[in-house]
Amino acid sequence: MGSQSGSSRVVRKKSRNDGPVALTREEGLFRSALFSATIGVAITDRQGKFVVVNPAFCRITGYPEKQLKALTWMKITHPKDLQKNRRLVVGMRNGEVSSFVLEKRYITKSGDVVWVRNSTSAFAKPGGKPANFIALVEDITERKSSEQAIHELSNKLLQSQDRERRRIARDLHDATGQHLAGLILLLGALKQSSSALDKASQKKIASALALARQAANEVRTISYLLHPPMLDDHGLVETLKWYVRGFSERSGITVRLHSRKTERLAPEAETALFRVVQESLNNVLQHSGSARADITIRSYPNFTVLTVRDYGNSGKVRKRAKKALTLGSLGVGIPGMRERLQQLGGELRVKFGRRGTTVKAILPRSLKDKDA
C-alpha cells in the first residue's frame, strides 16, 4: 500500500541501528490489528482500486482478497449509490473534505445486497494531494432490515388510521347525523304544537331543539375533520378553503391561503397534504401562540410544494417535535407528517426560526391523479 512504500524509503535513509527494528515492530502491530479487526477495512488508490483489504471486508463483500485487489470500489457499489459516493470522493480528492461517512449498498460476489456504514478518510504526504483512501466498513444490513420493517409497519398503521377515520366519519354522517336530524324534526313539530303547554314546558322544548341542532352541527364538524367528503369531490384547494375558514372562526387565528389554480393530485397525496395542514395549524394553536399563519400551495412541473408558516414561538414546537422523535411515536405530529410524505416519495422540511416555524411538504407530480 502507499504508506508502506513511503515507510521503506524512510527506513533506507535511517542510519541508527534501532530504526528498522522499531519500524518493523510498528508495521507488525498495524498489520496484526488490521487483519484481526472485526470491522471491514479497505485501502484504495486514487483510481479507486483496492490495495489492502482485511478478512472482515472480504466477508462483507463475499470476495476473496486476490479478487478484490483486481476490482475498484465502484465495481461493487450499488448503482443507486454510485453517484453520491463519487461526489464525496471527488470532494475529498480536491481537498474540500478530509473524510466522510456514508450509508450505502455493496453488491456481493453472490449478487446479494448488503448495507454498510462506510467511514472514509484520505491520507497523503504533508502538503501533497491524497494518495490513498482508507475506509472503515460496518455491515448494517440487519439494522436496515429492521428499519424497513418499522417503515412498513408505520405505513400499515397510517393506512389503517385513514380507513378508520373514513369509517367513523361515514358512520357519524349516515347514522348519528341522521338520527339527530330526525330528532330535530320531531322537536320542531313538537314546538309548533306546544302553544297549549305552559311557558316552562315550551322553554324546555325550545332548549332541547337548540341542543339537538348544536349536537348536529358538532357531529357534522367532527365528521368533516376526520375525513372531509369534499376532499374526494372537490379536491385539496377547495377543502382547505373550507377548513381554514372554520379553523379561523373556532380559534381566532387569522389564516391566509395562497394558491394558484392547481390540477388534482392522487387521493392519497391530497389526503397527506391535508393532514400536514391540520397538524401544522394544530401546532400553531397549541404551541406557537401566533396570531396568524400563511398556507401556500405551488405546483411545478415535477413536484407540488405546500408551505405552512406561523409567526410565533417556534421553541415550543421544536421541543414537542424532539420529544416525539425521541419517543419514536408514529402518526403523531411532525414524525407522522414526515412518514406520510416519505411513503409517497416526498419529504418534509421543518425550519424553526426566531420569527416562527415553517413547515414545507414536497410531493412528486408523478402522484397526479390519472382520473382528474
How would you sum up this structure, described in words?
This protein has 372 residues and is an alpha+beta fold. Helix content is 56%, strand content 20%. The two termini are 62 Å apart. It has a five-stranded antiparallel β-sheet, with helices on both faces. Strands 6-7-8-10-9 form a five-stranded mixed β-sheet. The protein has helices spanning 2-13, 18-36, 55-61, 65-68, 73-76, 79-93, 141-192, 199-226, 229-234, 236-251, 267-288, 314-327, 333-343, and strands at 40-45, 50-53, 99-107, 113-123, 132-139, 254-259, 292-299, 303-310, 347-353, 356-364. It folds into three domains: 37-139, PAS domain (Beta-Lactamase, 2-Layer Sandwich); 141-227; 231-372, 2-Layer Sandwich (Heat Shock Protein 90).
Write down the overall geometry: elongated
User: How large a portion of the residues is in β-strands, by DSSP E?
Assistant: 15-25%
- Report the sheet with the most strands, covering strand number, pairing sense and barrel closure: 5 strands, antiparallel
In CATH, the architecture of the largest domain is 2-Layer Sandwich
Order of helices and strands: HHEEHHHHEEEHHHHEHEEHHEE
Quick one: CATH superfamily of the largest domain?
Answer: Histidine kinase-like ATPase, C-terminal domain
What is the C-level CATH assignment of the largest domain?
A: Alpha Beta
Roughly how many Å apart are the termini? 62 Å
Features:
single chain; 372 residues; alpha+beta; Beta-Lactamase; Heat Shock Protein 90; 3 domains; 5-stranded antiparallel beta sheet; 5-stranded mixed beta sheet; 13 helices; 10 strands; 56% helix; elongated; disordered C terminus
